[in-house]
Amino acid sequence: MTKLKTLLIGAAASALAIASFAGIGHATTVLVADTGWQNGDVTARNKDVVGGPIVFTVGAGQTDVFSLTDAFLPGDHFKVTINGSTSAFSSLTLYPTSFPNNTGPFAAFYAPAWQDPQYEHLQLTFGAGSYSLKIVDLTTGAQFYPAGFGYRLDSGVPEPATWALMLGGIGMIGFAARRRNRAAATA
Predict the structure, then answer these.
(1) What value does the mean pLDDT take over residues 116-129?
(2) Which residues does 134 contact at the CB level (< 8 Å), separation at least 6?
């Protein structure tokens, strides 16, 4: 029930984000968590992803992970601008694969590239909120365009405060069970 509620809240927030962007004439791509590898393309240096920006919402109490990988020509270098200000850059860093890598419509192409050190990668963690990502390729040289990349959003990692509440709840259940066992033993 909680997962369904989170998905419905996320869908509603994504719909609002689409409506707000559509009202000012921007195309958007709504990224749905846990749908696996998706395909992104850029047509020239410093141009946003085709169909971009990429928008998504992270539900309350959740921490979602956004992953990006190059896979076509080694050497593409991507910049991600988050909500119009904060930026991150891809690198040759290999990140942990804490998600089912072989999922999504483009998994056959991007799952191996995610684990290949010759391609650039990026992984970002997002807490609760709505996000808009502008992704551009900073690579110079006409031979690199159009450039493609894979991206995905994976959910379900509770925030630290949620972990504390869950552990506290488990502790209370254990305390109640222990107390019940003691009462039964003395009776």
Answers:
(1) 96
(2) 48, 49, 52, 53, 80, 81, 84
Within 10 angstroms of residue 143's Cβ, the number of other Cβ atoms is 8
Q: What is the maximum alpha-carbon separation in the chain?
A: 83
Tokens of 169: 């709840």
Asked if residue 128 lies in contact with residue 58, where contact means CB atoms within 8 angstroms, the answer is: yes
Residue 51 pLDDT > 50: yes
SS3 category, 115: coil
Please state, in angstroms and as integers, the Cα–Cα distance from residue 61 to each residue in 41, 46, 118, 155, following that order. 32, 34, 35, 11
Best CA proximity match to 54, nearest among 44, 41, 43: 41
pTM, to two decimals: 0.70
Sign of CA dihedral 63, 18, 88, 68: positive
SS3 state at 27 = coil
Tokens of 72: 């076509």
Quote the CA–CA distance of 153 and 155 in Å, as a whole number.
7
Rounded to an integer, what is the distance from CA 112 to the centroid of its chain?
18
Amino acid of residue 53:
P
**Residue 22: Cβ-neighbour burial (10 angstroms; 0-12, 13-18, 19+):** exposed
Average pLDDT over residues 64-72: 94
What is the β-pairing status of strands 129-137 and 78-82?
antiparallel
Peptide bond into 117 cis (omega under 30): no
